[in-house]
């Protein structure tokens, strides 16, 4: 298999952590890929019409894309370790969707300041994206701590990757303020070996 990836992508980080935790890292060739909404990588575009990372090229079917599709596929391939069965499964999937929603908004904020011309930027739109992040983080802190403190699953990994990305790109916004329980959980979770081994390079 081949994984089109970028080391700074939090969506890619989720996949890399799952590969480590399920012992599949050696089964995947990493294809370093530079792509933006304004400059798609040609090799990636040939595999993923959305030209986004991560994308997983398989020998036995079409290339998979969207991190949640890839992690579900790889987890099934690795023995169903990180997506629990029963009622907890739906909580895990909801947590993963919440984390990805945080990332979607946080990345749009980055694009607004890095890609859009300065005279066309809308600070109000950026603040609106942060409002989504802030509400989601507050919901994690008030509704989801029991799950986050439970057995390791993809929901927890996704939340940790999202919070780490907020520190990486939006540290001055201070997501921890008013979210003490979540901040305490994250401080412990980010000390895990797979979090340390996947820290993105400064860029």
From TrEMBL:
Gene Ontology molecular function terms on file: transferase activity
Domain annotation GST N-terminal: ranges: 1-82
GO CC term (a single one): cytoplasm
Highest taxon of the lineage: Bacteria
Residue ranges of coiled coil: none
Keywords, comma-separated and alphabetical: Transferase
Protein name as catalogued: Glutathione S-transferase
